[in-house]
Specification:
The complex is a heterodimer of chains A (about 550) and B (about 240).
Chain A (H helix, E strand, L loop, with lengths): L13 E6 L3 H5 L8 E5 L2 E5 L1 H6 L7 H7 L4 E4 L2 H16 L6 E2 L4 E5 L1 H6 L3 H15 L6 E6 L1 H13 L10 E2 L4 H8 L5 H7 L3 H9 L5 H5 L3 H19 L18 E9 L2 H21 L2 E12 L4 E7 L6 H16 L9 E13 L13 H17 L4 E6 L9 E5 L8 H4 L18 E13 L17 E6 L5 E14 L8 E10 L4 E7 L2 E7 L2
Parallel strand pairs in A: 2-4, 5-11, 7-8
Antiparallel strand pairs in A: 1-6, 1-7, 2-3, 5-6, 9-12, 10-11, 10-12, 13-14, 15-16, 15-20, 16-17, 17-18, 18-19, 19-20
Helix pairs in contact in A: 4-6, 4-14, 13-14
Chain B lengths: L1 H19 L9 E2 L14 E2 L3 E4 L4 H14 L4 E4 L6 H7 L6 E4 L7 H14 L2 E5 L6 H14 L2 E5 L9 E13 L4 E14 L6 E6 L8 E2 L1 H18 L1
Parallel strand pairs in B: 3-7, 3-8, 4-5, 4-6, 6-7
Antiparallel strand pairs in B: 1-2, 8-9, 9-10, 10-11
Helix pairs in contact in B: 4-5
Classes of the chains: A alpha+beta (about 550), B alpha/beta (about 240).
């Protein structure tokens, strides 16, 4: 078995991967000694070493994490902050290594051949890079791995970062060159590594496990043809990586050199927003050029120059292809970090250039026939971008599920700069978790953005009160809103008391709800809280 | 000489294009509506390029009901000027929330900026719902209307339609809630008479609906109403 031939094409390039686990908490400026976690969609995505010691893990729910570590401070996830702060690390490494490539904030990849020769070997270079990053970014946890291919180097980097908690400067993990060394390193690893690092789908990993393929070595031992027959293309991809092969798409090619889009500014641009706007147009232009050939860009070089010759160059990599929105988001990270660097830029930006570095055939965006992404979705996504340009991104919203007892709580509006318009699965994943005490359907069609104060009187003209046990002083007879003439209540029901978040003194709410229909036929949802009546929603 | 003849040929060709171009009937340019509301619409669907005005007591529910069919069938809905839209009610009535976008207009939006915003919405969305239409010039409204027709979107105006001339006006008569007693029960469903009037409708069209119905959706009330009346009268006879 030791002489298994390498089944896949050329040997992968020798790469170094710098990996900063839990980058989001570092970007948020949290001290490693304080238990802090960053949440996205109610799940922990990153935590400080202190929180990790307390037992908080990625994927924990908010409540779960708070139960394990009650003093945990929670921060909302902000991809823009992650990207912006990571620029500091990128700049520090860029002093000694050219052509840095970022897949996501927190991970940096570069070819080792040139720099390792210059700095006296891979180990010396890796130690130098680590020192640069640790000096540039306070409180960072990091590690570096050098190996053949992105996947192997990524695994090595994670192992290197894993020991950082114990030692001040982590030891680089360097895997020898050649397929045998790569295999020896990969074979004992669990197949779930594929899901963590190479974004292989969890279902496939699960299937591998149930079929008894638990280690990467087990997977690599299978004949490639059988893997293709049984698991299709995703299986072949997983197999290729497990064999230590190249993890780029099989049909990835370097595009023709004339494929480049450039925007030169007559007047130097000093502000971020006009730059991002121009980037949007450039990205669209590039996208159109590529789409005409049925291709998608998987690695893009973004270059900007100022009038005084300062330069920011960055390679952005996304294995699924960079859409227009994804390009713009990355350009924003890059420029935001660059403009906000200490000392700032000495002049305005005069040139912006996008050069695709690697393209592959675009087979992932087939328009849906039965559901899925349709042309209407494309149109809408474009219109949203255009409207956001007209009225500001902070003014355009899409619904997201939140859950709650009040009619306005179940769904909330989220701003489109933090949500993906055409990918609703995550934000609208309705968890009909028990919300005991929420009013059943029908729900009010108009929910007041701010509740309207009202007064409710009984037949004798006294204000109706609800005591602590939810007992009414008298049956409500008239309701008047903001000095308008009082309306007679035709029918009513309530009180339905709720006592929410009694464990949190700031968010604690105790109220009783009522439904009224007035003599004019209007139906209202009314609450009384602290003896004050409010109209919260209208069944309009 | 040669140039003249080629120009003449171009003109001939341009004429041919207009005569040979396939005729598109209004009914081919329809977006679906909920089955219960079909009697209200001249072509039993939302005509692309038309403006629908919803006014009266239950304007918000009626506007949602009018777009339910199209939204469920895959069209995107944009709402502007409706910050109070109840999302739970929208999802209960059948609006696809994954294809819903809201624009909260900045309050100091001028006429041109507002018109640009609406034009951008019309360009990208099949269904656009507006409320609080500001004072705009008749010319601006006409230009937006022309754009609407060119793009084939449907505009729903909630409340006062201002300078827009609606192709179809839907108003509400006799809203009656059921289920709420004197200190008991809860709001269960509402019965409405929807009245549609408009240029292309000879006379008013009416239909009785439960909006919202017992589960928050739309239900027809015409036939059910007859049944309940019949049952009641039978019951009365037996007692008397």
């Amino acid at each position: 078995m030791s002489a298994r031939p390498v089944a896949y094409g050329d040997a992968p390039p020798r790469l170094a991967v710098l990996w900063c686990p839990d980058w989001s908490v570092v970007a948020a400026g949290a001290s490693p000694l304080e238990p802090v976690a960053v949440l996205y969609a109610n799940r922990v995505v990153a935590r400080t070493p202190a929180a990790a010691t307390a037992g908080v893990r990625q994927g924990h729910r908010r409540r779960e994490a708070q139960r394990i570590c009650p003093s945990l401070r929670l921060i909302d996830h902000d991809p823009a902050r992650d990207g912006r702060e990571f620029e500091a690390a990128v700049r520090s490494v860029a002093q000694m290594v050219p052509r840095l490539e970022t897949t996501e904030p927190g991970s940096l990849t570069f070819l080792t051949r040139g720099p390792s020769r210059y700095f006296g070997g891979e180990l010396a270079m890796a130690q130098r890079v680590l020192r640069l990053v640790i000096d540039a970014v306070p409180n960072v946890v990091t590690g570096i791995g050098i190996a053949d291919g992105r996947f192997t180097a990524g695994v090595a980097a994670r192992q290197s970062a894993g020991q950082h908690a114990a030692v001040p400067v982590p030891v680089p993990v360097i895997i020898g060159s050649g397929p045998n060394d790569t295999r020896a390193f990969l074979d004992p690893l669990s197949v779930s590594t594929l899901a963590d690092i190479a974004a292989v789908s969890g279902d496939l990993i699960d299937l591998f496990r149930r079929l008894g393929v638990r280690r990467l070595g087990d997977l690599a031992a299978l004949p490639a043809a059988d893997v293709l027959a049984r698991f299709g293309r995703p299986g072949v991809f997983a197999h290729r990586i497990a064999c230590g092969g190249d993890d780029r798409a099989a049909d990835a090619v370097a595009p023709s050199p004339e494929l480049v889009v450039i925007q030169a500014f007559e007047d130097p641009v000093h502000l971020l927003d006009p730059l991002v706007f121009a980037a949007k147009q450039l990205a669209q232009q590039l996208h159109d050029l590529l789409v005409a050939n049925g291709r998608v860009c998987t690695r893009l070089s973004v270059v900007a120059e100022t009038e005084h010759g300062e330069r920011s160059e960055h390679l952005w990599c996304r294995p699924n292809g960079l859409s227009v929105a994804a390009i713009v988001e990355r350009v924003r990270w890059q420029f935001d970090g660059w403009i906000q660097q200490p000392g700032g830029l000495s002049g305005g930006i005069v040139l912006m250039r996008f050069t695709p570095d690697e393209v592959c055939s675009d087979d992932g965006s087939q328009l849906g026939f039965w559901g899925g992404r349709t042309e209407a979705d494309e149109w809408a996504a474009r219109a949203v971008a255009r409207v956001a340009g007209l009225v500001g991104e902070q003014q355009v919203f899409v619904p997201a599920w939140r859950g709650g007892r009040q009619p306005g709580d179940a769904y909330t509006w989220v701003c489109i700069d933090t949500a993906d318009v055409t990918e609703p699965t995550e934000r609208l994943a309705v968890v009909e978790a028990p919300w005991p005490g929420h009013l059943p359907a029908p729900s009010p069609a108009t929910v007041m953005a701010e509740s309207v104060p009202a007064e409710v009187f009984d037949a004798a003209g006294h204000v109706v009160r609800v005591n602590g046990r939810g007992v009414l002083s008298a049956a409500p007879h008239t309701v008047s809103v903001r000095g308008r003439p009082a309306e007679t209540i035709a029918a009513w029901a309530g009180p339905w008391p709720i006592d929410e978040r009694w464990w949190d003194s700031r968010q604690h709410r105790r109220m009783a709800r009522f439904q009224f229909t007035t003599s004019s036929g209007e139906a209202l949802l009314v609450v009384v809280e602290q003896q004050q009546w409010w109209i919260t929603a209208v069944y309009s | 000489m040669e140039r003249d003849s080629s120009q003449a040929r171009h003109e001939q060709l341009a004429q041919l294009v207009t005569t040979v171009a396939p005729v598109s009937f209004a009914r081919d340019r329809l977006l679906p509506v909920h089955a219960v509301l079909k009697p209200l619409f001249p072509d039993a669907g939302l005509t692309r390029g038309s403006i629908i005005g919803c006014s009266g007591a239950a304007a918000m529910s009626v506007a949602l009901a009018a777009v339910v069919g199209a939204s469920a069938a895959g069209s995107w809905l944009a709402v502007a000027g409706l910050p109070g839209l109840g999302l739970r009610a929208a999802s209960e009535v059948g609006i696809a929330l994954e294809r819903l976008v809201m624009v909260a207009e900045p309050p100091q939006l001028g006429e041109t900026a507002w018109a640009n915003m609406v034009a951008a919405l019309i360009d990208g969305f099949d269904l656009v719902a507006l409320a609080g239409v500001p004072q705009i010039r008749a010319g601006t409204a006409r230009r937006l209307q022309a754009r609407l027709q060119a793009r084939g979107a449907v505009l729903i105006v909630v409340g006062d339609s201002g300078q827009f001339s609606c192709d179809l006006d839907i108003s509400v008569q006799h809203p009656t809630w059921q289920g709420l007693g004197d200190g008991s029960g809860r709001l269960a469903r509402r019965r409405l008479t929807l009245v549609a009037s408009g240029r292309r409708l000879g006379r008013e069209r009416r239909t009785e609906v439960w909006l919202p119905g017992a589960d928050g959706g739309i239900e027809s009330a015409s036939d059910v109403a007859l049944q309940s009346v019949a049952l009641q009268s039978v019951a009365l006879k037996q007692v008397g």
